User: Fold these one by one.
Assistant:
Number 1:
Amino acid sequence: MNHLIFLLAIISLTILIVIWLKNHLHTSSQEKSELAIWLSQQANQQQMIQNAIQFSTLYQSINSQAISVQERKRLNRDDDVFIYGEIDFISFAKILALVSPKSGEIFYDLGSGAGKAVYAAAILYDFSKTVGVELLPGLHDVAQSLCDTFQKLFQSLFVKDRIVFINADILHVDLSIANVIFINATCFNYTLWQKILSKIANLKIGTRVIVVSKKVNHSAYQLISESFEWMSWGLSVVRVYQKIS
Ligand SMILES: C[S@@+](CC[C@H](N)C(=O)[O-])C[C@H]1O[C@@H](n2cnc3c(N)ncnc32)[C@H](O)[C@@H]1O
């Protein structure tokens, strides 16, 4: 009898664990098909695929990861905050759609690396400015050097001074004109993240902040959406916030 109760308890526990895992774990194939469905629902999907192909041409000879490693070695900065990873074009299109960028708005990427999110934002929406802020000079230089190739590949989208790269610390840049801010913060440590939170507390009302892997726990910000999205290293949680007061 005792054996039967024990067996039933084990079976019930296993069923509960399976149900919990099914509800709480996002499988990569599920997310991949969600991204494919999203793309198929876009009116401009052909254009988007063409842009994604051109975008991969822009970055075909760039090994951002290696440049980051080289730069950290050169500057003797092995802090985790510099660990490299970047956006995927189509996935980033899906992410940006969450904030419905309006024509003429200004986009910032804080910690812009080789500039993928900055160029992608300029391709995908009619931002009047897309700005990348990166501390490591080697990555900043690569991002900036791609401007000529971008102009050749995306002639109709190129407007002088529309794409700007700043070689600086995120904490030292004026963000008062920003409408949409992207922060791929997966490797940012507690100290850096707290400082960024204090900084974004002063942004203008209405500013949307897209954050990878971290939370904005601040009364001035409202959570708009939370989803799992693809990054170069795999799936990450992406949260969109809006400044409400
Ligand atoms: C995960 S990468 C993201 C690159 C890019 N935003 C993307 O998603 O494709 C984060 C970047 O932040 C940069 N970074 C880290 N701390 C920084 C700081 N205090 N100021 C500026 N850039 C910083 C790193 O060097 C790295 O290039």
Number 2:
Amino acid sequence: MNRTNIEHPTSNAEHRSWGHAPCALEFEAWRFSGGWWLVVGVCRAGFGASLPAAVAFLALMLSLEANTATDAGAHNWPRFRGPNGLGVSESRGLPVEFGPMTNLAWRTAVPAGHSSPVVWENHVFLTGYEDTRCLVVCLDRKSGKRLWERTVEATRVERKSKPNDPASSTPAANETGIYALFSGFGLVSFSHDGRERWRRPLDPFTPPHGMGSSPVLAAGRVVVVADQVSDSYIAAFEGASGIPIWKTPRPNLVGGYATPVLHDTDILTGGPMEMVAYAVDTGERRWSIPKMGVMPVASPICVGDRMYVYNDAVPPYEQLTVQMKADRNGDGKISPDEFPDPSFKEAVRAIDRVYGNGDGAVDKEEWDGALKLMRTMNSLVAIDLDGEHSKERWRTTKLLTDTASPLFYGGLLYLVKNGGLLASVDAETGEILRQDRIPGLEGNIFASPVAADGKLFVLNESGKLAVLQCGRDWRVLAVNDLGENCYATPAIADGVIVVRSERDLWAFQNKSMK
Ligand SMILES: [Ca+2]
Ligand SMILES: [Ca+2]
């Protein structure tokens, strides 16, 4: 090839072109955050190019691109749950047993915050908070040394339900720098050497449990989903400047906490009651699939042209009235004013208006009738993605997860549930292959499972990290104990697994392979 350019234009997509190659083919390639490539070949016919040469050249290009993409997949973990939110790294040689004294590469004290660490090349980033200070911390990936810390003052205190906190949203990284969302402020971006590039204050967020969705990078934009009780939206900001590009209103209901994923030039995000695709370029609502979750907590995943989404359960009426004591005056209806969580007022009104008799309150018949109509109870749904022809392939209501997002790895789906329950699921049919308890992993699970090197990593709240051999008959290899509470999803890059506990960031590496 006689010309190779690597450019970093205004977008954070990396662009390469190979022109006037001997076979008279021209190639244009764009590498987007998340490590995927769009390669377009144009045949300049009539210049005597031989077909075998053209095919050989194309094969060479594709193999080069495949290698580059593989490297990106192993080196970086650029957003919540790594490349495009899959929770999967191409890293190899990961340790099975680790802890304070075992296979520890480094351990560094970090500020409070339940957001997850991300990795870009030599840097590990994470967000945190201290009083009203929102913090972005950059560590050296090899040594764990703290390279820099930057502060943005929160402009407000937002209401949060535990374990949500002022630094819950995971930042996103690319070759230009780091992009962080703080619910008490808005967006801020720093370069890799800690220079503030821009800041973009945003209006207060009002999801009932506090902002939990993480920003993602797509085609040079920072995309934010704010699903809340009023003024819900999805918006994109220019990655280079933070300038707003588009903002599309979304339906209001009871809020959402999931992080969107990319598919081609669409950004996909669930709820309320549908999965929606927006054009990354314009924010235009392109298509939707009905009968999805009301209040997404787990994030969807996209595997090729297949999407898997877990639709959370809305509690049945009895749980609201008995456990949450919502019907305070005992008249058999929940009125907006007696709902225990004030920000649910709008949701109660909406359910009565859309599914009820419009008297302003919701009774058992209306509530459970709405649930039945919405068909969202505990369902895992597979969707075949084909633009506006996208359609539901299967759904199963047998599975349960809580906060953790589903994982697709090695052709199988995995779901984890509080109490240490793990299920392997046939990705083609939704059939449960094996569902069992992971011994020693009792308690809540807030981190999402991640996988690499044929292994599955499941972390619970009390800091037990199970390592499992993947497969339909998965088996436990080890249950490690960090001895500190954990809420963040681990990051995996270059043979290292990075785990955030309440006080520390830990990096584990197979010492015998060094
Ligand atoms: Ca009542
Ligand atoms: Ca009513």
